[in-house]
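[SOLVED] Predicted holo structure with adenosine-5'-diphosphate

Edit: marking solved, answer below. Original request kept for reference. I posted the sequence and ligand SMILES and asked for the 3D complex as structure tokens.
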Amino acid sequence: MNDVLWTADELTEATGGTVTQPFAASGLSIDTRTLQPGDLFIALVGEGRDGHAFAAGALKQGAAGAMVHDEVSRSGPLLRVDDTLAGLTRLGGYARYRFGGKLVAVTGSVGKTTTKEMLRTALSAFGNTHAAVASYNNHWGVPLTLARTPRDAAFCVAEIGMNHAGEIAPLSRLARPHVAVVTTVAAAHIGYLGSIEAIADEKASIVQGLEPDGIAILPADSPQLPRLLAAASGSIVMTFGVDPSADVRLVHSEADADGSLIHVDILGHTASLRLNAPGQHMAMNALAALAAVAALGLDPARAIAALADFVPLAGRGLRRQIAIGRGTALLLDESYNGNGASMRAALDVLRLQPARRRIAVLGDMLELGDAGPAEHAGLADAVTASVDCLFTCGPLMRNLFDAVPDEIRGFHAVNAAALAPVVAKALGDGDTILVKGSLGSGMKRVIDAIQAAETSTHTTAGAG
Ligand SMILES: Nc1ncnc2c1ncn2[C@@H]1O[C@H](COP(=O)(O)OP(=O)(O)O)[C@@H](O)[C@H]1O
Ligand SMILES: [Mg+2]
């Protein structure tokens, strides 16, 4: 068996549950599609899905045991608890209690996952670092991240998200961070929160879980900084940004199509970092990560060296050359999320790219409530400044499509499925294509259609 992550005694002590027979687990899983032999399978109940239906399958797949609160047709050891989500949360709390390293928690309206991944890269230069998978940042994602933290990890990086008020503080109290980062405050989920001030308050509530002498890392350039500072008044605060008052300050940056050379001042020490992720927003995320490194008392120079290897993630800024006919085009995959702040950031990156044509393929930004139509139409200037040909889909993006000049209007479709084949056919050699929209808008379909067209190009070329 791999290293034991949870012994039978710890499992029962942590959850208050009982085991049908003693077993140890080398990992944790909530999804049989990614389950590893030796994992404890946790039968979570979610929207339209009950993990208890997969427990027997998980045991057959080699799970060490299954955590359940309902009857299952068993073929292996069970950990019976009163409620599996409560059980997972208790595992998370117990794991945090036994964790001897440093924990950094990251929240913000955008940039959480990217900054979390930058911190994984940077802190790995100092010791064994465990970080959340993808965007595991909610009521099950945060305890799962904690409960998966290896015993000997020196650092743990947790992402904490929300889409309703009151969600961040209890997760932060569970994570008990030594350092809590707020990347930005923007109009994401404003449909639920009601105002940017309410969003700022919710983001700031991350400080409620800070350990004694914990440090809050706040965005110096945010118009909401006074509100964030007020909420963090009981804690040590470090700020990052362009503002001259920032503790970790962006002195100057030279942006190009592939990245930026950024010159920073970290608590009075200057340094330069080559970031292979284009865009001012990426430079800001790197500054937030460096501020957290400095707050942990670590040498920023080693973190800066490690960050040179950082590349953006799929759906969050990954760039890829694709074969188109006998030529190539550059694909900017931003299909994982979309709100006003991230749209403008991605359009800035598109504008930096040398291209025959700069094409934007944009899907609805969701959870904006009544602000939706105006937020979409409000992107017209940024689009006009960066795009030669615009493709859009969804009822809200119609507002943008109708607001831009005729000459850059490509095509508008009801949804991503209808738009995908149109875009795949329209691309040509030398184009640069940005694909972006909220996850719920399904822009991944456009990425898949473009890649499918690429494969068929290859096969035909191969056959030629
Ligand atoms: N600091 C930032 N400011 C504005 N937009 C950003 C920032 N960081 C990332 N983005 C944009 O938001 C998208 C999602 O980034 P991600 O790190 O996944 O954010 P989150 O985890 O908060 O949803 C990226 O693809 C990028 O377009
Ligand atoms: Mg995320």
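OP edit: The two ends are 51 Å apart (CA to CA). Thanks to everyone who chimed in.
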